[in-house]
Design brief:
Layout (H helix, E strand, L loop, with lengths): L6 H14 L3 E3 L23 H4 L9 E9 L15 E10 L4 H13 L12 E6 L9 H7 L8 E4 L1 H4 E2 L5 E12 L9 H9 L3 E15 L2 E16 H8 L12 H10 L5 H19 L8 H19 L6 H13 L10 H25 L4 H8 L3 H10 L6 H23 L6 H22 L6 E6 L4 E6 L6 H16 L3 E8 H7 L12 E8 L5 E6 L14 E10 L2 E8 L1
Parallel strand pairs: 1-2, 4-5
Antiparallel strand pairs: 2-3, 3-9, 4-7, 6-7, 7-8, 8-9, 10-11, 11-16, 12-13, 13-14, 15-16
Helix pairs in contact: 3-4, 9-10, 9-11, 9-12, 10-12, 11-12, 12-13, 16-17
The structure holds serine.
The site of serine has 10 residues, from strand 8 and strand 9.
């Protein structure tokens, strides 16, 4: 048997095949769309090409092809099974008002089946679906007629818009598509429509290529008529097609992942497939995101990157991998990808991943201390970012029972309450609004201490209010603060954030806290036992101490960048500051 093509060879063959047919080869665009704030990442090869599909002329001509880096995080919780990935490369060819169905279908078929120029797949294992038609567009008989030259008619199935229509979102170019499927085991033979649908549901056939005939436009979710030109937009996921070509049943057994999984298996104390796959997938995504300039942070792309790294860190602990092993994995991926993507070798990538790992490890450790004290799983999840699975695992080790039902309903209530706010903005339900509020709480303490240091030691808090978006503090002072004072206060807070001071909570009798000189809000009635939050460096030099119920971050470095938005009078002798973090 001849040796199966590698993923790099498949990528190269694809680009050569279309270059020979008059296509300009475009380098992959950055994962972060340049001029499109409506999406966080490129999720399809066509995304950077939307203006050209809409009619603008492309400097490289009317025939284009690329291997485009894509990130889709909608399925993040599914990663670990045999096929879901958060990062993938999409191979695609485009006609911008040039060739249409005849050539698109002929070339898809030829590339899939030709042993010399393409992938040499067995035509007998191919099945095809086409759009069945509705009020927006008629049944695609034209595609059927073309396909009949290559595939027996009884292997061509009609499916509705849900399956055979593609658009990047609610607005933009769209159209009916024809999709190619492959029988993984090669045992299925001829199938009726129902048998085909069942085989698809069971994962016995997998979609390997999609040709979209983009001649329509969508506005606000409605198909609104035709574009000025008839386009072709095709896409094939490189990892998935590699799995097919290499005769594997999961993408993780292909050359894209196998060396990495072997390295994880060698190093792990307690290996499990799912954990190792999650680590491999997430580190690969993190690598490409950082290579494209994203840094772990508290919002948008940075938030997703941080979430990917943190999930990988959690798993690396479960597998018993040593600290900073993830950076080694990133370096190995860098080697595997260096020819196609030289940016993947950037040494700062491993350092960024390790830095985020260290930060998260501190949070985890603080969370573990809370766990030892018996803190409720809901607080561990919302304040310390502990996934419930981790709390359950720790509890199992200690023989403690976790009430999963109670946790799920608390989380649901919590998510419902915050859905309208930050989550919507961060998309995909990934944001955790309480995390933002937690940071603002700690920033609030830093701000009060900074006002005392910069403006006057007699300043005390007279009121406060924190939302997902901002903090507000009222304090006694008899004049407007100068711009210079405000700037110094802001700088001092940011300096304390950069110093990554530790936040420690101590419970003590109220009198003891008063003796300690902890800040308290005048007029508030405190209980006999209070909790005091101290913000201090490693030599226990205290910057801030306040009575407070929390919640707070464990280290100020987690806060982000602090910014004063406004300073104004609140009432006689009381000033008010509003501030945000980013
Ligand atoms: N845009 C289509 C898809 O993502 C074809 O590339 O499936």
């Amino acid at each position: 048997m001849t040796k199966a093509l590698t993923s790099s060879e498949i990528r190269a063959r694809f680009l050569d095949f279309f270059a020979k047919r008059g296509h300009a080869i475009l380098p992959s665009a950055s994962l972060v769309p340049k001029n499109d704030p409506s999406v966080l990442f490129n999720t399809a090869g066509m995304q950077p090409l939307v203006p050209y599909l809409m009619g603008e002329s492309h400097p490289s001509g009317k025939r284009l092809a690329s291997a485009q880096k894509c990130v889709r995080t909608g399925d993040i919780d599914e990663v670990g099974d045999n096929r879901h990935l958060t990062f993938f490369e999409m191979l695609g060819n485009w006609s911008l008002g040039d060739y249409f169905k005849e050539d698109a279908i002929a070339w898809s078929y030829e590339f899939l089946t030709s042993a010399d120029e393409g992938l040499g797949l067995d035509p007998v294992r191919l099945y095809v679906t086409v759009f069945e038609g509705d009020e927006d567009a008629s049944r695609d008989m034209e595609a059927v007629e073309i396909w009949k030259q290559y595939i027996p008619e009884h292997r061509i199935y009609f499916l509705p818009k849900k399956n055979n229509w593609w658009s990047p979102g609610d607005n933009g170019p769209c159209g009916p598509d024809t999709e190619m499927f492959y029988d993984i085991a090669g045992t299925l033979g001829d199938m009726t429509h129902e048998e085909f649908v069942a085989a698809d549901d069971a994962g016995k056939v997998v979609e390997i290529w999609n040709d979209v005939f983009m001649e329509y436009e969508k506005k606000e979710g409605q198909v609104m008529g035709k574009l000025s030109q008839k386009n072709v937009d095709t896409g094939s996921g490189l990892e998935r097609i590699t799995m097919i070509v290499q005769g594997k049943t999961t993408v993780f057994e292909t050359d894209v992942f196998a060396p990495v999984l072997a390295q994880i298996q060698d190093a792990a104390e307690k290996y499990d497939d799912q954990g190792a796959r999650i680590i491999a997938d997430h580190v690969r995504s993190a690598l490409f995101l950082i290579a494209d300039g994203v840094l772990p942070g508290s919002k948008d792309q940075g938030y997703i990157l941080r979430r990917l790294i943190r999930r990988a860190v959690m798993r690396s602990r479960t597998l018993g991998l040593r600290a900073h092993f993830l950076a080694d994995i990133a370096a190995l991926f860098g080697e595997l990808y260096k020819d196609a993507y030289p940016e993947a070798l950037d040494v700062s990538i491993g350092a960024s991943i390790s830095h985020e790992e260290d930060k998260f490890t501190r949070t985890l450790e603080a969370g573990l201390k809370e766990f030892e004290k018996g803190t409720d799983p809901f607080i561990l999840a919302t304040t310390y970012g502990f996934p419930i699975e981790l709390t359950e695992e720790l509890a199992r080790e200690k023989g403690i029972e976790i009430d999963r039902g109670a946790f799920d309903s608390q989380m649901k209530a919590h998510q419902d309450a915050s859905r309208a706010g930050a989550e919507q903005k961060f998309k995909g339900g990934l944001a955790n609004s309480s995390e933002q509020t937690t940071k603002l709480h700690t920033a609030h303490h830093l701000l009060l201490a900074a006002l005392q240091e910069v403006v006057s030691p007699d300043i005390h808090q007279k009121g406060s209010n924190i939302t997902d978006e901002r903090l507000r503090i009222d304090f006694n002072f008899d004049r407007k603060l100068t711009a210079e004072e405000l700037q110094k206060v802001e700088e001092l807070v940011n300096e304390k954030i950069r110093e990554d001071l530790t936040v420690t909570r101590r419970e003590m009798p109220r009198e003891e806290a008063e003796k300690l000189g902890a800040e308290m809000e005048f007029g508030t009635k405190y209980p006999d036992i209070v909790s005091v939050y101290m913000i201090h460096d490693e030599h226990d030099k205290i910057f801030s101490k306040e009575f407070c119920g929390g919640p707070h971050v464990t280290h100020t470095g987690l806060i982000g960048t602090f910014k004063i938005q406004k300073e104004e009078a609140s009432s006689a002798g009381i000033r008010r500051i509003k501030a945000t973090i980013a």
